[in-house]
Amino acid sequence: MTVLAHRGGTGPWRENTVEAFTAALRLGADGVELDVRRSADGELVVHHDAEVPGSGLIHECRRDQLPEWVPTLEPALAACAGAVVNVEIKNFPTDPGYDPAERVALDVASVLARGLDARARILVSSFWPDSLAVLSRHDGAPSLGLLVHPALDVLAALETATGLGCVALHPHHSRVSGDLVDRAHGLGLAVVTWTVNRPDEIDAVVDAGVDVVITDSVADTLAHLGRH
After folding, report:
1. Is 69 within a domain?
2. Fewer C-beta neighbours within 10 Å, C or N terminus of the chain?
3. Domain that holds residue 108
4. Spatial distance between the Cα atoms of 68 and 25, rounded to a whole number of angstroms
5. DSSP β-bridge partners for residue 2
6. Does 54 fall in a domain?
7. Total count of domains within the chain
8. 180 in the Ramachandran plot: left (φ > 0), alpha (ψ -120 to 50) or beta?
9. What CATH number does the domain containing 118 carry?
10. 85 neighbors 7 (Cβ within 8 angstroms)
Protein backbone atom coordinates (compact mmCIF):
# COMPACT_ATOMS: atom_id res chain seq x y z
CA MET A 1 0.00 0.00 0.00
CA THR A 2 1.49 3.30 -1.13
CA VAL A 3 0.88 6.26 1.19
CA LEU A 4 1.07 9.81 -0.16
CA ALA A 5 0.96 12.95 1.96
CA HIS A 6 -1.90 15.22 0.82
CA ARG A 7 -0.26 18.59 0.06
CA GLY A 8 2.55 17.39 2.31
CA GLY A 9 0.23 16.38 5.13
CA THR A 10 -0.89 18.15 8.28
CA GLY A 11 1.74 19.42 10.69
CA PRO A 12 3.45 22.52 12.05
CA TRP A 13 4.15 23.69 8.51
CA ARG A 14 2.29 25.28 5.63
CA GLU A 15 0.79 22.81 3.15
CA ASN A 16 2.23 22.53 -0.36
CA THR A 17 5.67 23.71 0.73
CA VAL A 18 9.11 22.16 0.47
CA GLU A 19 9.12 22.02 4.28
CA ALA A 20 5.90 19.99 4.27
CA PHE A 21 7.13 17.60 1.59
CA THR A 22 10.45 16.88 3.28
CA ALA A 23 8.71 16.44 6.64
CA ALA A 24 6.24 13.95 5.17
CA LEU A 25 9.05 11.89 3.69
CA ARG A 26 10.90 11.92 7.03
CA LEU A 27 7.74 10.57 8.66
CA GLY A 28 7.83 7.63 6.28
CA ALA A 29 5.40 8.60 3.52
CA ASP A 30 6.14 6.97 0.17
CA GLY A 31 5.61 10.31 -1.50
CA VAL A 32 3.50 13.41 -1.70
CA GLU A 33 0.57 14.92 -3.54
CA LEU A 34 0.90 18.55 -4.63
CA ASP A 35 -1.01 21.09 -6.71
CA VAL A 36 0.26 23.20 -9.59
CA ARG A 37 -1.02 26.47 -11.04
CA ARG A 38 0.51 28.93 -13.52
CA SER A 39 1.55 32.45 -12.54
CA ALA A 40 1.16 35.54 -14.72
CA ASP A 41 4.77 35.24 -15.85
CA GLY A 42 4.50 31.55 -16.68
CA GLU A 43 5.99 29.97 -13.55
CA LEU A 44 4.55 26.69 -12.30
CA VAL A 45 3.51 27.55 -8.75
CA VAL A 46 2.75 24.88 -6.13
CA HIS A 47 -0.43 25.98 -4.37
CA HIS A 48 -3.91 24.52 -3.96
CA ASP A 49 -6.17 27.56 -4.06
CA ALA A 50 -6.37 30.02 -6.94
CA GLU A 51 -5.46 32.83 -4.54
CA VAL A 52 -2.57 33.27 -2.13
CA PRO A 53 -3.87 35.28 0.85
CA GLY A 54 -2.23 38.68 1.00
CA SER A 55 -0.84 38.40 -2.53
CA GLY A 56 -3.77 37.86 -4.87
CA LEU A 57 -4.83 35.48 -7.61
CA ILE A 58 -1.91 33.39 -8.82
CA HIS A 59 -2.73 33.83 -12.49
CA GLU A 60 -2.56 37.62 -12.00
CA CYS A 61 0.70 37.61 -9.99
CA ARG A 62 4.30 37.30 -11.09
CA ARG A 63 6.37 34.77 -9.21
CA ASP A 64 8.25 37.55 -7.41
CA GLN A 65 4.93 38.91 -6.09
CA LEU A 66 4.20 35.66 -4.25
CA PRO A 67 5.66 34.68 -0.84
CA GLU A 68 8.97 32.86 -0.80
CA TRP A 69 7.36 29.91 0.98
CA VAL A 70 5.25 29.21 -2.11
CA PRO A 71 7.55 26.98 -4.17
CA THR A 72 7.71 26.46 -7.89
CA LEU A 73 7.45 22.95 -9.27
CA GLU A 74 11.09 22.11 -9.95
CA PRO A 75 12.39 22.78 -6.40
CA ALA A 76 9.41 20.86 -5.02
CA LEU A 77 10.21 17.86 -7.20
CA ALA A 78 13.89 18.10 -6.32
CA ALA A 79 12.98 17.91 -2.62
CA CYS A 80 11.07 14.69 -3.35
CA ALA A 81 13.66 13.02 -5.59
CA GLY A 82 13.28 9.26 -5.45
CA ALA A 83 9.80 9.44 -3.91
CA VAL A 84 6.40 9.12 -5.56
CA VAL A 85 4.96 12.51 -6.52
CA ASN A 86 1.35 13.03 -7.58
CA VAL A 87 1.24 16.36 -9.40
CA GLU A 88 -2.32 17.66 -9.62
CA ILE A 89 -2.90 20.20 -12.37
CA LYS A 90 -5.29 22.98 -11.35
CA ASN A 91 -7.05 24.39 -14.43
CA PHE A 92 -10.78 23.76 -14.19
CA PRO A 93 -13.32 25.82 -16.17
CA THR A 94 -14.78 27.28 -12.98
CA ASP A 95 -11.34 28.36 -11.69
CA PRO A 96 -10.31 32.00 -11.78
CA GLY A 97 -8.02 32.46 -14.74
CA TYR A 98 -9.04 29.21 -16.44
CA ASP A 99 -6.87 28.76 -19.52
CA PRO A 100 -8.48 26.72 -22.32
CA ALA A 101 -5.08 26.56 -24.04
CA GLU A 102 -3.92 24.34 -21.14
CA ARG A 103 -0.54 26.03 -20.87
CA VAL A 104 -0.10 24.72 -17.34
CA ALA A 105 -0.36 21.13 -18.58
CA LEU A 106 2.06 21.79 -21.42
CA ASP A 107 4.52 23.46 -19.07
CA VAL A 108 4.32 20.55 -16.61
CA ALA A 109 5.05 18.16 -19.45
CA SER A 110 8.07 20.24 -20.44
CA VAL A 111 9.45 20.25 -16.90
CA LEU A 112 9.06 16.49 -16.57
CA ALA A 113 10.60 15.88 -19.98
CA ARG A 114 13.83 17.46 -18.74
CA GLY A 115 14.54 14.24 -16.89
CA LEU A 116 14.44 15.15 -13.19
CA ASP A 117 15.51 12.42 -10.75
CA ALA A 118 11.93 11.85 -9.62
CA ARG A 119 10.63 11.62 -13.19
CA ALA A 120 9.99 7.87 -13.27
CA ARG A 121 7.85 8.03 -10.14
CA ILE A 122 5.65 10.96 -11.10
CA LEU A 123 1.91 10.67 -11.67
CA VAL A 124 0.07 13.68 -13.09
CA SER A 125 -3.62 13.98 -12.22
CA SER A 126 -6.49 16.36 -12.87
CA PHE A 127 -10.25 16.63 -12.45
CA TRP A 128 -10.41 18.18 -15.92
CA PRO A 129 -10.07 15.60 -18.74
CA ASP A 130 -8.87 18.23 -21.23
CA SER A 131 -5.71 18.77 -19.17
CA LEU A 132 -4.96 15.06 -19.30
CA ALA A 133 -5.76 14.88 -23.00
CA VAL A 134 -3.14 17.56 -23.71
CA LEU A 135 -0.58 15.62 -21.69
CA SER A 136 -1.43 12.32 -23.38
CA ARG A 137 -0.53 13.83 -26.76
CA HIS A 138 2.82 15.19 -25.53
CA ASP A 139 6.02 13.40 -26.52
CA GLY A 140 7.19 11.36 -23.54
CA ALA A 141 3.84 11.81 -21.78
CA PRO A 142 3.94 11.21 -18.01
CA SER A 143 1.75 8.66 -16.26
CA LEU A 144 -1.76 10.07 -15.91
CA GLY A 145 -4.56 9.74 -13.36
CA LEU A 146 -8.15 10.96 -13.62
CA LEU A 147 -9.56 12.56 -10.47
CA VAL A 148 -13.28 11.97 -10.00
CA HIS A 149 -15.48 14.36 -8.05
CA PRO A 150 -17.70 12.50 -5.55
CA ALA A 151 -20.83 13.85 -7.29
CA LEU A 152 -19.93 12.15 -10.57
CA ASP A 153 -20.47 8.56 -11.68
CA VAL A 154 -17.26 6.86 -10.73
CA LEU A 155 -17.95 3.77 -12.84
CA ALA A 156 -18.52 5.90 -15.93
CA ALA A 157 -15.22 7.59 -15.18
CA LEU A 158 -13.45 4.29 -15.81
CA GLU A 159 -14.24 4.59 -19.51
CA THR A 160 -13.04 8.21 -19.57
CA ALA A 161 -9.80 7.26 -17.84
CA THR A 162 -9.02 4.42 -20.22
CA GLY A 163 -9.88 6.60 -23.22
CA LEU A 164 -7.34 9.17 -22.02
CA GLY A 165 -4.65 6.56 -21.62
CA CYS A 166 -4.55 6.92 -17.84
CA VAL A 167 -2.79 4.45 -15.59
CA ALA A 168 -4.87 5.36 -12.53
CA LEU A 169 -8.31 6.42 -11.36
CA HIS A 170 -8.54 8.80 -8.38
CA PRO A 171 -11.94 8.47 -6.68
CA HIS A 172 -12.86 10.03 -3.34
CA HIS A 173 -12.70 7.41 -0.60
CA SER A 174 -16.47 7.56 -0.12
CA ARG A 175 -16.96 6.21 -3.66
CA VAL A 176 -14.53 3.31 -3.37
CA SER A 177 -15.87 -0.24 -3.41
CA GLY A 178 -14.47 -3.65 -4.09
CA ASP A 179 -16.43 -3.74 -7.35
CA LEU A 180 -14.91 -0.44 -8.49
CA VAL A 181 -11.39 -1.59 -7.67
CA ASP A 182 -11.91 -4.92 -9.44
CA ARG A 183 -13.22 -3.17 -12.56
CA ALA A 184 -10.36 -0.68 -12.52
CA HIS A 185 -7.76 -3.41 -12.12
CA GLY A 186 -9.39 -5.35 -14.93
CA LEU A 187 -8.80 -2.34 -17.17
CA GLY A 188 -5.20 -2.00 -16.05
CA LEU A 189 -5.91 1.02 -13.84
CA ALA A 190 -4.52 1.52 -10.34
CA VAL A 191 -6.87 3.06 -7.78
CA VAL A 192 -5.57 6.12 -5.93
CA THR A 193 -8.03 7.37 -3.32
CA TRP A 194 -8.26 10.61 -1.33
CA THR A 195 -8.37 12.01 1.35
CA VAL A 196 -8.20 9.06 3.73
CA ASN A 197 -7.66 10.06 7.36
CA ARG A 198 -9.79 8.12 9.86
CA PRO A 199 -9.11 4.48 10.82
CA ASP A 200 -12.50 3.35 9.50
CA GLU A 201 -11.79 5.07 6.17
CA ILE A 202 -8.40 3.40 5.94
CA ASP A 203 -9.86 -0.02 6.72
CA ALA A 204 -12.62 0.39 4.12
CA VAL A 205 -10.32 1.28 1.23
CA VAL A 206 -7.72 -1.34 2.21
CA ASP A 207 -10.46 -3.98 2.26
CA ALA A 208 -11.59 -2.79 -1.18
CA GLY A 209 -8.06 -3.34 -2.48
CA VAL A 210 -6.92 0.16 -3.47
CA ASP A 211 -3.33 0.70 -4.50
CA VAL A 212 -2.62 4.17 -3.09
CA VAL A 213 -4.07 6.27 -0.28
CA ILE A 214 -3.62 10.03 -0.06
CA THR A 215 -3.85 11.26 3.52
CA ASP A 216 -3.46 14.38 5.63
CA SER A 217 -2.48 12.28 8.65
CA VAL A 218 0.75 10.63 7.56
CA ALA A 219 2.00 9.30 10.89
CA ASP A 220 -1.41 8.05 12.03
CA THR A 221 -2.15 6.39 8.69
CA LEU A 222 1.22 4.64 8.61
CA ALA A 223 0.75 3.49 12.19
CA HIS A 224 -2.72 2.13 11.43
CA LEU A 225 -1.26 0.21 8.49
CA GLY A 226 1.35 -1.29 10.79
CA ARG A 227 4.23 0.55 9.21
CA HIS A 228 5.40 2.30 12.41
Report:
1. no
2. C
3. 2-12+25-35+83-224
4. 21
5. 212
6. no
7. 1
8. alpha
9. 3.20.20.190
10. no
